[in-house]
Amino acid sequence: xxxxxxxxxxEMNTVGHISQGLWRHPGNTRERYTDIEFWQSEAKxxxxxxxxxxxxxxxxxxxxxxxxxxxxxxxxxxxxxxxxPMLVIPVMAAVTSxxxxxxxxxxxxxxxxxFARRASTLDHLTKGRFGWNIVTSYLPNAARNFGLxxxxxxxxxxxxxxxxxxxLYKLWEGSWEDGAVVRDRSGGVYTDPARVHRIxxxxxxxxxxxxxxxxxxxQRTPVLFQAGSSPTGRAFAGKHAEVVFVGGAxxxxxxxxxxxxHREAEGFGRAPGSVRTLGSAVLIAGKTRADAERKAxxxxxxxxxxGYLAYAGGGSGIDLARxxxxxxxxxxxxxxxxxKDASTMSRYAPGATVGDALREVTRFxxxxxxxxxxxxxxxDAIEGWVAETGIDGFNLRQFVTPGTIEDFVEYVVPELQxxxxxxxxxxEGTLRERTFDAGAATLPGDHPGAAYxxx
Amino acid sequence: xxxxxxxxxxEMNTVGHISQGLWRHPGNTRERYTDIEFWQSEAKxxxxxxxxxxxxxxxxxxxxxxxxxxxxxxxxxxxxxxxxPMLVIPVMAAVTSxxxxxxxxxxxxxxxxxFARRASTLDHLTKGRFGWNIVTSYLPNAARNFGLxxxxxxxxxxxxxxxxxxxLYKLWEGSWEDGAVVRDRSGGVYTDPARVHRIxxxxxxxxxxxxxxxxxxxQRTPVLFQAGSSPTGRAFAGKHAEVVFVGGAxxxxxxxxxxxxHREAEGFGRAPGSVRTLGSAVLIAGKTRADAERKAxxxxxxxxxxGYLAYAGGGSGIDLARxxxxxxxxxxxxxxxxxKDASTMSRYAPGATVGDALREVTRFxxxxxxxxxxxxxxxDAIEGWVAETGIDGFNLRQFVTPGTIEDFVEYVVPELQxxxxxxxxxxEGTLRERTFDAGAATLPGDHPGAAYxxx
Lengths: 455, 455
Fold this sequence. Notes:
The structure is a homodimer. In chain A, 37% of the residues lie in helices and 13% in strands. Chain A is an alpha/beta fold. Chain A folds into 2 domains: 6-291 and 365-452, TIM Barrel (Alpha-Beta Barrel), CATH 3.20.20.30; 304-362, no CATH class. In chain A, helix 1 links the parallel strand 1 and strand 2.
């Protein structure tokens, strides 16, 4: 595998994604997320900077787990208002030729047949540059927007997700054989019907007849991204994911998680190197260290504690406004851990109190992948992280648009290129071919999706 | 109301929409429907020709009502392969500033909450140029792709559609008040939470909490298009639709239908002129009449009877391959009329047999809105149709891409412009403002959707 790392922009079709309060920055133009020009200019910048992908997060509800409702999230623009992530990909694809596009889509609320066609359409329009970030969703308000009383249980969401993928593999891989589309003008045969098949899926959650409506796209199955830190999520990733977004509180945590993911994948009969791993990186780059420090101070000053608490309350199910300041975070986490994945709150030291958590909530230097300084200093840090964890790349957190990407491209990319850690030009081919050294455009033969192909 | 007529291109994200067999035409490039460039070049051409909209049809299944399966439709490229219609709108919007975009979307198979956000996203990205063609779907295979044994009954589909619209109005019109988004940087308020509301819809078919995730788009509710010829469909159109796609076998039929639509709308308390009507027009234009005749002969020669029969079998539920050639069409239609809308087969003369129907199936000159000749001759015909029916405009059928639009723009548009029947430049504003003389960007106050607004 190449030493070149994967760099992706962590994005969302919204004002405030994960840097709460920063919309107030005087140079931030996030309110233009409703404009085509906003996305096209960002895509051109990312392609000029040789990024792998723009990775679009998504939610299907409001964060209402803090102060008994969504008001804080609404006031602070915490992922609301937001728009559909898939619909901005075509306009970015129109002005780029190599940048990849990853959209988050949930297996819990919408029928697989419709999603299968949308994903195929995007893979066609982008000429094989589409990736799907598989999620099962986590906001209670999302469940109530789709007719449920509350979220499905974690286990049931994953059972449903496995069957969802099975339906999709049947449509993407099994319904249309290679060469089915012949376009024989003189013979009057556009598609050979003997090579197009119904799928007749009858499962626990879904019944889908087929055939798939879309002809095969360059990658058929989009590159499969996933983030899942629970044992169930980890097993799901080991089976299905090609790129895994890993979490952790320290470099050894990451190293262990990454080793674990590779072991899981091999347990499903997949070759070593079948899965690439990404972490979330917070990089504040400047012309000088002082310049970077000045930016960090500005970002800290503009960060909104209320915004972060609303965000954390939605993600973890823990409403910190409800607890006394001297309660132990370990007790607070234990009180909800049976129903929620409390991983976002798991980085507190033993003995940390709710008061400590409230004070720390705006700190963006808590994860191990935080670096601030010149391009050289940041590249040093990145090189160290990779050596210690074996990670393959990063999703970059944005503070300001424009700003964060420009700084990374100007200061950090040249330093990484000098060290052979960053591409100097794009390879041709699909996103999957660029993601894996020896990759073909379609899923490798040992991926479970390949089992649904007809020979 | 202006005498200017509305012209729209009848399109679909597919190879063979309604001109079956024409993909074999040597100059046809329909197989490029998977490319961004195909859609952008078409959109630029339509905007240069001052079209109102590109009107994208859609289906969610294969036409398998002929010869016991989908093989004929697959071989003849009858609306399969096809891709999602909404995902090509952003790329067309990126290269135009006035052209409107109408996408077909069904109220039967996908949850309203997700569609509400997709529609708002498109209305944002197009800056208020989005229209929605409301359908309830009709292919049995579509039902089986979404977990049902067979289609819902006609009545139940419409009951569901009414409630679907109610949910959407609550999200689009009622959830976010005007002025809710304040973007107050110094005060730290992006959106005033007191002006964003849950909808808490609890109905027969849907339960949706809200709030809507998207902030208000220029039109809020997209311009509502609908085609429904049954009494139930007509009543639905009278209540909800702003533009109605009308059918009929003769000019008097159209005149009666159009009068009826206006009466229905007024019955729901809507002002006269609240609904505009469109018919499907087949125009074959040439530099000379002989030139147009040569084209028509070529189109006829390349038409595929098998393709049309597969198409008609899916649309009507009548598989003509199953009946003896001497059976009367009136008997055949009566045998299915209880479960299907047989309107597509209703144009046969009394005494016509299955053999007559098979011979006629490729004829594209059967409807009353057929004209062939020079621009002047076609403009004469159009002027006559409008005078006799009171219709407001047309969806143009395509035979070849490129070809049909170019001919219309070159030969017919200048003649219509001379007579004051076609715009000579676009008015500014949203699609709704351009569709109605005195229109605002959002729904008029007497539209049922406006009742969900908060004051």
